[in-house]
Amino acid sequence: MTPRAGIVVTGTEVLTGRVTDRNGPWLAERLKELGVDVAYTTIVGDRPGDMEAAFRFMAKEGLDLILTSGGLGPTADDLTAEVVGRFQARPMVLDEALEGRIAEILSPLTKRWPNLDMDAIRESNRKQAVVPQGAIVLEPIGTAPGLVVPPSEPESKPTVVVLPGPPRELQPMWSEAVETDALKAAIKDATEYRQTMLRLYGIPESEIAETLRAAEREGLELNRLEITTCLKRGEVEVVTRYEPAEQEVYDAFEAVVRERHSNTLFSDDGSTVDQQVAALLRGSSVDQTQTIATAESCTGGLLAARLTELPGSSDYVRGAAIVYSNEAKITQAGVKAETIEQHGAVSAEVAEALAAGARAKLGADVGVGVTGIAGPGGGTEEKPVGLVWLSVATADGEPLTRSVNLPGSRADIRDRATTVAMHLIRRALLHS
Amino acid sequence: MTPRAGIVVTGTEVLTGRVTDRNGPWLAERLKELGVDVAYTTIVGDRPGDMEAAFRFMAKEGLDLILTSGGLGPTADDLTAEVVGRFQARPMVLDEALEGRIAEILSPLTKRWPNLDMDAIRESNRKQAVVPQGAIVLEPIGTAPGLVVPPSEPESKPTVVVLPGPPRELQPMWSEAVETDALKAAIKDATEYRQTMLRLYGIPESEIAETLRAAEREGLELNRLEITTCLKRGEVEVVTRYEPAEQEVYDAFEAVVRERHSNTLFSDDGSTVDQQVAALLRGSSVDQTQTIATAESCTGGLLAARLTELPGSSDYVRGAAIVYSNEAKITQAGVKAETIEQHGAVSAEVAEALAAGARAKLGADVGVGVTGIAGPGGGTEEKPVGLVWLSVATADGEPLTRSVNLPGSRADIRDRATTVAMHLIRRALLHS
């Protein structure tokens, strides 16, 4: 039977909505990849009684595995390790070797802040090295160790994996946890699943719903696949999970999607548009690399930030001119004052001038111009909030220019405009 | 006694992490405002057994109130109303008046798409009008009605409030739910709470832990306050929640924090450093406004994007030069080639030249320069990944320049560098 897991996210700041939990969703995806069903994700505050009740509930529901995130810090309200120890009926013991390793991790800190209270540090250091007896220690990435805590009686369940709250500590530590015998034993009955992702851009989600219905009308047994579709940052993601025996059903389904959506399907291998644009800019060899630069108004640097998100992007990103004021558009991106006067700052003409200006001023092969009204103020009947003009200029031929009317808040409009720009760059590079 | 509530968010797409839940955090904030403690937020998939188990758990823990979101749609996997009816031991009955009102909501839809299958529509319409007997119906905003379902035996608990998944339907419907006698009865013992937030920058979280211990040593009864500390984007947030009767204890606690952390406490009114920088740039009147521009290397536009996040930022943000390549640093930000040659692109000298260049090239009052190694490649022993130099130049006097060694991934380093920059800008503006 497919093993079932629960996730317990701790922290009053998460429970009260002040901090958005990123660990629950991330761990849920990882568990799915391993063929483990997630039954519950429960968020609890820093009250040990509530945390323990959540564990008891999950154990009573017969879950094989419980993952916790958070509550491993040095302060007194960080209680997860202790509560898990009690729940698994394992006494807490000081791991002296671990205490030494944490002290080593902390030593650069004490150099940076020479006035720190060393007694306080040593005390919290010791707290973090007190672990349930028999637990497998996962080496600290920050200062907090993680734990894999098996049930105290063999053949019983659940096994509890204790992970720190910061995602950059939790994520590598989870990879370590997966390699432990204790975790492998807890999920030994997991089924192998295959998972694929198709990404489409430029169609409403309802079109995919109609494609699913059409596939079923054609006789495909889609109930043998687990298909989820979701709209994410302006793209439609179709994720399919299936047992290896259903490969043929999946292949037939993918063929239907390909046939009906050949113009909008842009990724079938998990690659993002960001990765595709990076690969297109790099070309097939170093001397084929094309450089890129942006001139942005309403996105205010978000497009440049997105282009430089990938490691090694300095190989092809020259830079950007963020030109919020009209003066900056003129001096930094070479837009003519008349163009702004005649057509307005948000226009096809200014977007094209920005793209050309980005190429010329920054000496890049590809130039991108973005100008729009992110709101909440500044909209008119003719040019409402959400109107964005974008243009991509390459060495050869006409620029690729288009406008969109984006819905949502200021943040939504700015973010969505970067997605539109990435797809426009992709199209320009494919056709240049 | 303070009433306690649980939130049950339903939906496989939320449980698997494909869609981020926005309702749990929103409802948690609203409950807090009403003086209701949230004990748990639990996410469950579309399996009725799992949903019912979550309700039973919350009832067993003695919660007064359960809120659910999602699972009220017209399709077969939308089961929340039925599961809640069974849980509250109330038979499901067709509310004919409600059925009529839903039909009216749907009629424009049927006019717009005349080919819709009317039988299918009528069937799902009827499904949404079948409600637990004795439940209070909350009028639909979309097509799904909400419900307040009291326990079937008087004086028992919990009361369950059933709300739809889309935030734009859930949020107004919650306001309606709050006005019902059934909900008022369920939380009649709610206490008023006060809540404050202190934000500090430039100290490790362990220092705050030590301050809490020190306050207790001085005799403060901190257990009469609910204090949570958390590290967020490089800042420490101390949130305190307390009953009005404990105001004196809180005042004494805040005084201790002020005394021990006068240099690092930068906000006591909930304001963010972004808002403070915006207010400082705006000044006390229009002719006092100072404009700002950045020249960024490793942050690649993230600082400009952050400065332009707030509505109205075009009043003071001139723009930015994103100068990834050395050539761009020279042509776009006026850095001298010799400066880069002599000191390297990541140096105090280049950061200062960038700050001065941003001011000069973009005609701004305040210039900010950022240059660093975001990694994962490009680090050396002398200049490791995570080293970032920042400088802020104003009209008067010396630039404010500093370096930091930031931990974490490329994304962490880039994000954290923007926080360091915001605080450096704040300091420069306060002292100029």
How can the largest sheet of chain A be summarized? 6 strands, mixed
What would you call the quaternary organization?
A: homodimer
Identify the overall geometry of chain A.
globular
- Show the largest interface: A-B, 91 and 89 residues
Please tell me how large the radius of gyration of chain A is.
Answer: 27 Å
The CATH class of the largest domain in chain A is identified as Alpha Beta
As for the CATH topology of the largest domain in chain A, it is Molybdenum Cofactor Biosythetic Enzyme, Chain A
Q: What is the H level of CATH, i.e. the homologous superfamily of the largest domain in chain A?
A: MoaB/Mog-like domain
Annotation, overall tally of beta strands of chain A: 17
Number of helices of chain A: 16
Based on secondary structure, the structural category of chain A is alpha/beta
Percent helix of chain A, as a range, is 40-55%
In spatial order, strands of the major sheet of chain A run 2-1-3-8-7-6
CATH architecture designation of the largest domain in chain A: 3-Layer(aba) Sandwich
How many domains of chain A? The number is 3
Overall residue-averaged pLDDT value of chain A: 92
Strand content of chain A: 15-25%
Low-confidence stretches of chain A: none
How far apart are the termini of chain A?
53 Å
Q: Can you tell me about this structure?
A:
2 copies of one chain form a homodimer. Chain A has 3 domains: 4-186, MoaB/Mog-like domain (Molybdenum Cofactor Biosythetic Enzyme, Chain A, 3-Layer(aba) Sandwich), CATH 3.40.980.10; 194-267, Alpha-Beta Plaits (2-Layer Sandwich), CATH 3.30.70; 273-431, Maf protein, CATH 3.90.950.20. Chain A is globular and about 75 Å long. In chain A, a hairpin with a 2-residue loop joins strand 10 (226-232) and strand 11. The first copy, chain A, is an alpha/beta fold and 432 residues long. Chain A has helices at residues 12-15, 23-33, 48-60, 80-87, 96-112, 118-128, 167-178, 181-186, 205-217, 247-260, 273-282, 302-307, 326-333, 337-343, 348-362, 410-431; strands at residues 4-10, 37-44, 65-69, 92-94, 130-132, 136-138, 146-149, 159-163, 194-201, 226-232, 235-242, 265-267, 292-296, 317-323, 366-372, 387-393, 400-405. The first copy, chain A, starts with a strand and ends with a helix. In chain A, 41% of the residues lie in helices and 22% in strands. Chains A and B meet through helix 1, helix 2, strand 2, helix 3 and helix 6 of A and helix 1, helix 2, strand 2, helix 3 and helix 9 of B. Strand 14 (317-323) of chain A pairs antiparallel with strand 14 of chain B.
